[in-house]
Amino acid sequence: MLRVTKHIAQRDATKRVTYLCHKIVVSSNSNYSTLNHRFGGGSYHRQQQHGSNGQGSGGQHFRSDFLAPHGPKAWTIPPNRGYGMVVVRILRGALKLRYLLLGGAIGGGMTLNKKYEDWKDGLPDLKWLEEALPQGEKWSQFSKTLMEIGGAVKDVIEIDPRLKQLGEDKVNEWRQWFDNRLDDAIEAADYQGVAIVESKDDIKSKTTVAALSLSQDESRKKYDNLQSQVETLQTEIMNVQIKYQKELEKMEKENRELRQQFLILKQNKKTSTKKIKKSLIDMYSEVLDELSGYDTSYSMADHLPRVVVVGDQSSGKTSVLESIAKARIFPRGSGEMMTRAPVKVTLAEGPYHVAQFRDSDREYDLTKESDLSELRREVEFRMRASVRGGKTVSNEVISMTVKGPGLQRMVLVDLPGIISTMTVDMASDTKDSIHQMTKHYMSNPNAIILCIQDGSVDAERSNVTDLVMQCDPLGRRTIFVLTKVDLAEELADPDRIRKILSGKLFPMKALGYYAVVTGRGRKDDSIDAIRQYEEDFFKNSKLFHRRRGVIMPHQVTSRNLSLAVSDRFWKMVRETIEQQADAFKATRFNLETEWKNNFPRLRESGRDELFDKAKGEILDEVVTLSQISAKKWEEALNDSLWDKLSNYVFENIYLPAAQSDSFNTMVDIKLRQWAEQALPAKSVEAGWETLQKEFIALMEKAKKSPDHDNIFDNLKAAVVDESIRRHTWEDKAIDMLRVIQLNTLEDRFVHDKSEWDQAVKFLETSVKAKLAQTEETLNEMFGPGQFTRLTHWKSLTEDQNKRRHVKTELDKILRNDDKHIPTLSYDELTTVRKNLQRENIEVDTDYIRQTWFPVYRRHFLKQALHRASDCRKAYYLYSQQGAECDINCNDVVLFWRIQQVIRVTANALRQQVINREARRLDKEIKEVLDEFSEDEEKKSHLLTGKRVTLAEELIKVRQIQEKLEEFINSLNQEK
Fold first, then answer.
1. Top enzyme class of this protein (predicted)?
2. Closest CA to 932 of 606, 605, 700, 612
3. By the 8 A CB rule, do 364 and 355 touch?
């Protein structure tokens, strides 16, 4: 878009300049013609005044006056002749200026063309961009357009004076030619003016005379106008030149950027031969990452080499690793343990010095101090995050890759330093944990042990050498590194240092002995400064002089150490990689055979794949909620609502109103209080329980499907339980239900016979259900009947016998008063207790009341059933007489009102479930599934069994074996 805009701006500028130049040239030619007429007319008039023979003398007089205006004859020129001379001078100046401008433009244009061709030839060959950049055709079109613009502009623009200087000779030649032609034209006009005038017709003669009659002010005005046009043209040309210069600067800037891209791509082409090397170490690191969770004990197959950096705390092992990586990538501490977890660092060669964590896409630029600081903070954060449960160190591996120019390819594992004494802020098992971790990594038979020893302390105080001797007694894979030798030179005996580096002081054996300097103890020193200090030290140190001992130059500096470690690393990789690949191939064959024998018809699926399949089934079952019909939803909601509300209706509304003198008034008060307080919340609970019940029913129905896989049952149950636990009904639903329920309960009149019949049926069904519950309570209280005792060989307890006697006395009271109130009077309680005393049964009043409550309820419910039966056919009387009906049907009206509020509530809840709650439940289930998918521990707990573990192991071994084969192929290609 920017290039197209530039092209349009240049094209418009070229058109404008061409138009202005054409306009001023035409104007100048026109003025020149007019002035020639004026000049010729002046000569004819002068000759008429001097006589017929005055042609030669008159012409000579004009010539001398014109060529020498300051001579004596100049003061004898007639007025008309003076006006003509002024006009001629104006004409000459204007024409010279025009040709000067055009000549400068032409010469400058030619110079610009030449400079443009030179500049174009100096550009790099951009043919490679057609392959490297996708915009190759667009760039070629832009170049062609740019050349066309240059050709158009070079003919009309006056360019920089420095460029115009190059064509100065040509301009002077044109100026001299123009002056000669102008002098010839003036002389010809002087001698041939009469002939010209005679050849004109009368109109042209009048025009010439009128022109000569112009006043001096009008001539000056014409001259000023002409000069103003010339200045305007110069301003326009200058503006266009400035714009063109800006465009050239932009093009030069783009040219520089293209050169930089060219150099980068050229550098990448040069380093393309090293691509195999970079990819090799990355592939090998990926294999080690796969193995990290497969064979953690190095007991079966993970015997692949890696460099294990071990040493005492503060011995300088982290500094050695940073020197090899050429960057200070680890956090620093003053005497504090900073390395709290293993850090696997994969070193690789690359064009840029960057670092990246295995589980992150961000790259840290190691040439910037800000990125280095952020990298060190991230390492420290990950280390502290890996320590849980009050531990000081962790076994979790932090994997990172460091790439940069000149880095040696290898994989190093930095371990926590070995300590001899624990501080109070450490866990009690810290020392043992570090020892076990160090032995664990060194027990790999192909691990290269980089043993770090502090040269500034006594060798006898070292703890790491004993551990190294236990794991590698013959020293076939150990490299010994002595650090801080700059301090050792001042403190230790030189002969002792030489013995250490020659392998004669420690009983520990090693492949090689190296001495390094890891800095001057300054935290802010860069790696380059440390390396320069190290080189200067070894150049000037007397301790490592050849004449003083057997120390060889290749045994010193971190650079030689990294070369030696890398060489040994790749040598061991080549020696062991084929054997490791064969081991995994055999393991894979055994696992595949076992799978075919146990699960011949199933494909091996890991936990992630199984989890995704279970996730799909759960979400499909959630979708089926929307397929449930409205009728089924309302039936389920009706049942759930009555189960939730029936106890309150009987205990708090129906029974209290039945024992009051004003049944309807009490009912109205109780119903309104209920609708304003408890009813909306209870309705929401019923709706949520119905949604939960229907969802679980769908899950259970899915288990009966022939395609059901019971391996998902635990996972599905856990997801459903967690989703239901989190789900809450919308708060505004309660307020909406309250309004609907209050309006519904305000209606107190049954509208038609069908509703009356439904209310009667609802009353009978509800009373029968309550009566059945009461009968169960009575059976538990009084024991089984005579028939049951005989057939099932059961007997009554003492309490049941006692309650049976109390029941007999209570039945007498109810038979005497069929409409007895729900409570017993004091006299009645005394009568019952005395009657029982005659039978030697001692009971208190509370015992009698406890027995009375279910007995009276059964009596009341049976009476309610009789009233419902009587009211079944009483709708006509009710519709005519209302509440004054002879038959007491207030029970039916109450239950009709309850039935109506349940109906409208169920309808409202159904709409909420379909429109809102089912989708919200689906969203919550998805959130739970997403959380479970990231929790490997939970997936391992919920997806269990031999089928899962065997498939997981087989998939893991297959991945490792394939990566090993890919790595071996690349390794063979490098050879």
1. hydrolase
2. 612
3. yes
- Whole-number Å distance between alpha carbons of 562 and 191: 102
Alpha helices (H) in 785-912, listed in sequence order: 786-792, 798-816, 826-838, 845-871, 875-881, 890-912
Least confident of 59-63, 119-123, 153-157: 59-63
Q: Which residues contact 126 (CB under 8 A, 6 or more apart)?
A: 139, 258, 262
Report whether pLDDT(435) > 50: yes
Q: How far is CA 714 from the centre of its chain?
A: 33
Domain range list for the chain: 303-582, 619-934
Q: Which of 8, 7, 16 is nearest to 237 (CA)?
A: 16
Is pLDDT at 263 greater than 70 in this prediction?
no
**Look-up of token digits 């770090």:** 452
Phi, psi angle pair for 513, to nearest 5°:
-125, 130
First to last CA, the chain: 49
| CB neighbour burial string for 37-65, b if at least 16 within 10 angstroms, e if fewer | bbbbbbbbbbbeeeeeeebeebbebbeeb
The set of residues, in sequence order, having a beta carbon less than 8 Å from that of 534 and lying 6+ positions away, is 516, 517, 518, 557, 558
For the four alpha carbons of 15, 20, 21 and 27, in that order, the dihedral sign comes to positive
Average pLDDT for residues 617-628, to the nearest whole number? 82
Provide the residue type at 724 as one letter.
I
Read off the tokens for 205: 């003669």
User: What residues have CB less than 8 Å from 205, skipping those under 6 apart?
Assistant: 197
893 close to 748: Cβ distance less than 8 angstroms: yes
Q: Which sign does the torsion angle of CA 221, 222, 226, 229 carry? A: positive
How far apart, in Å, are the Cα atoms of 886 and each of 468, 761, 821, 889, 893? 107, 21, 21, 9, 15
pLDDT given for residue 657 in this prediction: 87
